[in-house]
Amino acid sequence: MSLSELLAWTRRVAFVGLAKNTGKTETLTxxxxxxxxxxxxxxxxxxxxxxxQRDVIDARIEKxxxxxxxxxxxxxxxxxxxxxxxxxxxxxxTDMRTSLGRVVVARMLAAGSVEIAGPSAxxxxxxxxDAMLFHGADQVLIDGALDRRMASSPTxxxxxxxxxxxxxxxxxxxVVARTRSxxxxxxxxxxxxxxxxxxxxxxxxxxxxxEDDGSWLSLPARLALSGTSEQIAAVLRSSPSARHLIxxxxxxxxxxxxxxxxxxxxxxxxxxxxxxxxxxxxxxxGWFARQGIHLRVLAPIHLRALTVNPVAPHSHVFDSKHLxxxxxxxxxxxxxxxxxxxxxxxx
Length: 347
What we know:
Layout: H1 3-6, E1 12-17, H2 24-37, E2 42-46, E3 48-50, E4 66-68, E5 73-77, H3 78-83, E6 88-98, E7 101-108, E8 112-114, E9 116-118, H4 122-134, E10 139-143, E11 159-165, H5 172-186, H6 194-202, E12 207-210, E13 216-218, H7 221-226, H8 229-238, E14 242-246, E15 251-252, H9 253-263, E16 268-272, E17 278-279, H10 285-290, E18 293-297, E19 303-309, H11 320-330, E20 336-338, E21 343-345
Parallel strand pairs: 1-10, 1-11, 2-5, 2-10, 11-19, 14-16, 15-17, 16-18, 19-20
Antiparallel strand pairs: 3-9, 4-8, 5-7, 6-7, 12-13, 12-14, 20-21
């Protein structure tokens, strides 16, 4: 099964790498090529800038350019589009601006490489994606990054392709461990309780929900940002039956640590809009679950594939098949492939 087959019927696909040089851009380029060969018209944009010839951190590393076939669509800035030597037709001049200028939507009239700098706000990325679909794209590919996780949000994309690789660590087992943690975070389970979901839909604020009667307590926004363990504990004491916490906006590890201290053994389920809103560093979601803090989402992210780059530039190289085998054991139910040798591990 090819990458394009894994992405079939996914209209908006985000591409995110766990680090620089994990092969994300090459994966996206592979998807563009395969979808074009399958007869699909592709639209491409980026959350921020991508497609540059040299790595912005290490200029020795030549990055794969984003090659677009004729009749594909692109959302980038006017200045970068003007620098593109291939013939193109401008379809839409938006009101969106980036540090590189105004974002436009264009159709490529000839095949060629393009440097892409799209909008950075979620609603703008969604808007240019919709514009490309309106102008004839069958699927839109969104180039994101680990620090631009907004691209993976269900409000922006319908599916995600994640790229990992040898650059994460010189120890293959550590690469697998870090990748597994990232996948667990992205694939947080959906909240199923219909009562809690109804409360989440009706209340715009963060709320603490009672387990027995569905009563809820609205929480100040600053509690999740800067509330101390003592302040959080006081709120929990005021609602002794509460077992559910709905958090609006970002959910940071520092708050979860304070919540864990304040809970003092009480099992709690913390729900956010989607996993792109959760930011963990030292501890993974599995660690918090073992401590009694369970993370859930209102809208799950659909991980369509995991791609592997076994090469760390100017450093070490893993055997691709061996690395994919380790990942297969650690991360069940996710298709894993190396786009260079096209061998797919289906689990």
